[in-house]
Design a protein that fits this description.
Layout: H1 13-29, H2 38-52, E1 58-66, E2 69-76, E3 83-85, H3 89-97, E4 101-103, E5 121-128, E6 134-142, H4 150-163
Antiparallel strand pairs: 1-2, 1-6, 2-3, 4-5, 5-6
This protein binds methionine sulfoxide (SME).
Amino acid sequence: MTFEPVNAAELTKKEAYDLIESSLSGLVEGDDGPFLDQIAIMATMCSLIKTLHKDVFWVGFYRLLVPGVLTIGPYQGTPGCLEISLSRGVCGQAARERRTIIVRDVHEHPDHIACDPRSRSEIVVPVLGRDNELLGVLDMDSTELGAFDETDQLALEYLLDKFMY
Ligand code: SME
């Protein structure tokens, strides 16, 4: 499958997520059977989100490779923090509480970690495996205040449920 370039500025958020899902499905399903490598799928999901969601300045996965520490995985944007303790940051909170956290203004969150000072709002979604085990989190940042809402939450939770295991 070939990705057809589109102008992200012309897409609504809902249209962007529909296109992310259909493109990812097409790419993952492949011409020769499904593509199963999780890192490849994470990298492709980040690429599609960064290309199609006009408010996203940084998107990436943090993976729980050892207990208590999130390690950076595939991402798009400026360099992210390489490791985040599970006890720290919005990422750590979403991982500990296993729930999506939307931060309207990162300056108002007492434990926000600024990997890039231009980030103004953020959404972090836990990534769970088939047995409901915590695999990591997906983190998205915007330079705009209040960029993320329930539309992002529902769409990202759906994408992660469908493509991560
Ligand atoms: N802001 C995150 C850290 C990760 S960076 O934004 C890429 C946090 O507070 O956990």
